[in-house]
Design goal:
The protein is built from no helices and eleven strands. By secondary structure, the protein is an all-beta fold. The chain is elongated.
Amino acid sequence: QVQLVESGGGLVQAGGSLRLSCTARGPISGIGAMGWYRQAPGKQRELVATMSSDGSSNYVDFVKGRTTISRDNAKNTVYLQMNNLNAEDTAVYYCHAEKTTYLAGITFRTSDFWGQGTQVSVSS
């Protein structure tokens, strides 16, 4: 099965930066969009950013201008560069990937995969 391996989380000072990485391993053929979600203490999991296999990206408003998602298809890896971090960014960040299986050119099944999460903590 597809495994999503995350890294790059840690503790940073407010205003600092982090770069998260997520690599898909296993039967990665058919993986489409990949992205990042986060879940802060006491809050629901929310979308941060996604990128399709064709390079199109989508960002949530509260990270626009200071966050960049990128992707290396050859390495099956998606990155999240976060700058000017603040305390509100403290959360567990989860990598996500979609995998579509086609049969005779028609979508047969779409599956969701999640990483185990990596902790991002921003101190004042």
